[in-house]
Amino acid sequence: MNADVAAENPSALSLWNDPTAPVSARVDALIAAMTLEEKTAQLFGVWVGASDEGGEVAPHQHEMEEAVDLDALLPTGLGQLTRPFGTVPVDPALGALSLARTQARIAASNRFRIPALAHDECLAGFAAWGATAYPVPLSWGAAFDPDVIRRMAAAIGRDMRSVGVHQGLAPVLDVVRDARWGRVEETIGEDPYLVGTIGTAYVQGLESAGIVATLKHFAGYSASRAGRNLAPASMGPRERADVVLPPFEMAIREGGARSVMNAYTDTDGVPSAADESLLTGLLRDTWGFDGTVVADYFAVAFLTLLHGVAADWADAAGTALHAGIDVELPNVKTYGAPLTEAVADGRVPEELVDRALRRVLTQKIALGLLDPDWDALPAALDGTDPDDPEALRGRVDLDSPENRALARTLAEEAVVLLGNDGTLPLARPRRIALIGPNADEPTAVLGCYSFPQHIGVRHPGTPLGISLPTLRETLTAEFPDADVTYVRGTGVDDGDLSGLDEAVRAAREADVTLAALGDRAGLFGRGTSGEGCDAETLDLPGAQQGLLDALLDAGTPVVTVLLAGRPYALGRAVTESAAIVQSFFPGEEGTHAIAGVLSGRVNPSGRLPIGVPRTPGSQPSTYLGARLAQASEVSDVDPTPAFPFGHGLSYTRFDWTDLTLDADEAPTDGEFTLALTVRNAGERSGTEVIQLYLHDPVASVVQPVQRLVGYTRVTLEPGEARRLTVTVPADLASFTGRDGRRVVEPGALDLRLAASSADARLTARVVLTGEERHVDHARRLHATFVQKPATA
């Protein structure tokens, strides 16, 4: 049906609005009816902020962009609304109404009545005022528990969908290569298998709620030189294939992610936003991805401004579109008039516009945005009167008791006990000295993409929107009979030690000292951790190490408690602290979790998703290093961590025994089956994390000394035992060979069942036989763990 006829007769159903028609037919009909301007309008977003009065959203004036005239744009349509909830503080119900009114206006303004797709951040919870602030992704990795991450993501997705959001910009699947990088807190860890499994679980949860999950940053952002944000990446094709890409591969294949965001990085001179071999050749032609590729904010313009591979906006648009970027975010800059003019004069083929448009419209149809019964009013406003905005205020709860319970569960699982001389759990101390900059700071539990730290700090005087009990408050509640003396001592990064004498006096008068240290999350210099907050060394920020050393000298047992976004070298505290408790920005319930570990109410089960360095200057270094990357007599720099990847202690003890192997040989397309018994030999219930590492002694290209290929959590009561059977496919031994293809080679392998990357408990030497075998993205990705009660 002609679009103008349909507009004059809304009751007549156009093919593109017919939900019974095949999606491809609906898309074809719509594309055929659209002008060039209407096509390109679907390929960009506009950055907006919802109204706290329930009126329409207002365009956000970003310092990098000119003001946007919505009245001029809307007659041809609009592809996306950027961060309606994550731009200014707004009551969730009024924000939902504001978004709904804007969506109704957008649909009414264009010939095809197509609304925009609304996206927002959801890195550690929906980044909206009043929404639950969950632990940051580095804590997800520390939990080693995909199931709880899946449930968390589903809860986040339900909250987002209820107020009219369609797409979430998460998870971050960058594998840490240098802990100095400010965005370490946003990552899941330093191991691609851990990142892949946890990230895939997040995608599954978010997508189950109807939210389009966006994988970022594709690919290699975290491999930047010297850990600097938005710097060139030093990375060969093998490192990219075997370390950087597997998490994305898994999240697309098993998670069903429907969107991918490019990385800002250029690798060997090619920006990701201009890399056709990456965004089209690998992502689509090889992996079969059929969703949308969205630009990281301003990335298309950066092809001109930062990379110098495009002469002007039209050239940047054509380059990105050809590479495979379908949608320009956050604002229209290059995909509007510059792209339209370049297509009209033949510089950019219209087929490229149609290719991207097809993906965008397919996604909008899948979201129901073109169905005849589409309603701009979201589920959260069902049964309300949109004509009475003030009556809506406070009606939508994005921080429900169920959300908080889930946030606490994850926070408790993610706390890592690094060291303990028996001081923990604390046995009814009479006098506690609580000292440090993070002891009485509500936001010490939050990462840089939490709403209070990301947006709230720009609006002083605005309430936080969620309850953030400080460690001082939760400790006082956890130890009601103790006298808790608080001294700040120093700031996170101000270098001020004027409170040092008072801190030492408090420590000397106490039974135990708790040193609450770490980071302040922020953006672009406003914090010590977060986007743009890169570190020159891994010393504790400011004067915190000086404070810690003075407390160690005071003579009272010191429990070092870290609320941080990255691991830090702790100097003397590694060996002289009575105990060390590590948490990575554990979210709004985080201080309850830490207090529970200190008291023993919670038996810690977290494991390090990234090693803790022994010295502050040994970066870049990860446990995935090859033999030449280990400590040696020919270098003065020892990269050996103080606490390795996968490390974490418990208040109980586990015995690992009775390793058996079904066969010590298997063909290169076969598998091995191992079994072991794990017993809780302590006096209280606890959870052990069984980690499986693969060591390849001889390969055709240099391999890491070992790499994680599987893990599982085992929860046991005192005296209880489980028999674990582990099936290990030969495909897990594959790597990128000399010819660039992934290969499984015959030869010996060590399968190490371990409590950390430095604590192998049981090892099976096996041999792969037969011819070398090439595998691809359809290879088996997982070892399978089965738990059964152990027989006596």
TrEMBL record:
Keywords: Hydrolase. Pfam families: Fn3-like, Glyco_hydro_3, Glyco_hydro_3_C. Gene3D superfamilies: Glycoside hydrolase family 3 C-terminal domain, Glycoside hydrolase, family 3, N-terminal domain, Immunoglobulins. It comes from the Bacteria. One of its GO terms (molecular function) is hydrolase activity. Residues 688-757 form the Fibronectin type III-like domain. SUPFAM superfamilies: (Trans)glycosidases (SSF51445), Beta-D-glucan exohydrolase, C-terminal domain (SSF52279). The keyword Hydrolase applies. InterPro entries: Cellulose_deg_GH3, Fn3-like, GH, Glyco_hydro_3_C, Glyco_hydro_3_C_sf, Glyco_hydro_3_N, Glyco_hydro_3_N_sf, Ig-like_fold. The keyword Hydrolase applies. PANTHER family: BETA-GLUCOSIDASE. Belongs to the glycosyl hydrolase 3 family. This is Glycoside hydrolase family 3 N-terminal domain-containing protein. It comes from Streptomyces cellulosae.
